[in-house]
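User:
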Amino acid sequence: MKNETEYENEDKKNQENKEEKAQKHSVIDDIQGIIIGSLTAAFGIAIFSHMNFLIGGTAGAAFLTQYTTDFTFGQVFFVINIPFYVLAIKKLGWDFTIKTFIAVSGVSFLTEFIPRIFEFGEINPWFAAVFGGFLIGSGLLMLFRHKASLGGLNILSIYVQEYFQISAGKFQMVADTLIILCAFFVVDWRALAFSVLAAVSLNVILAINHKPGRYRGMS
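Assistant: Predicted structure:
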C-alpha cells in the first residue's frame, strides 16, 4: 500500500499536469506569438543593419556576408539556416522545425521590408546597441516560449537547454561573443565594440527570462 508521502507526491504530480494543460498555448496563441516575435526581432535587426552592427550566430554570419558582398541580410539569413533544420527535425521535432522555418522566413522578409516603410535617420549608437539588443532578445524570448526560434545557434541553444539544463541565454552569450570577435577585420573597432554591447543586451533578456523550468506555457 502507498504511504502518505507517495500519495502527496502523486497528488502534486497530477496538479502539475493539470496546470501544464491549462497553460498550453492554442494555435492562435502560437500564431500571434510567432508573428509578433518575428516582427520585434526583425526591427532590432533592421536597426543593427542601419548602424553596421552585428550579432552572433547565423544572424552574425548573415551580417558579415551582407557587409562584404552584394547579398542582403534577408537572403543570406534564409539560406544559411537551411542545414540547421535537419538537426531541428531529428532532435526537436517537426512542430518546432515548422514554427522555426516560419519565423526565419518572416524575419528574412521583414528585414527587407521594414526599411521600405520606416526610414531610419541618425541614431545614437549607444541607444541603438542597447535598444536593438533588447528588441531582438524580446523577439527571441517570444519565439522560444512558443516553441520556435530563429534557427542556427538558437536551435543549438534550445537543444542544449532542453537536454543538458544549460541556460540558453548563457550558452548563446558565449557563442555570440566569440563570433563577434571574429568580425574584427570586417567592421571598424567602434562598430565592433557596440556590437559586443548589443550582444550582451540581447542575451541579458534571455538569461533573466528564459531559464529551465520557469515557463510551462509551451505547445
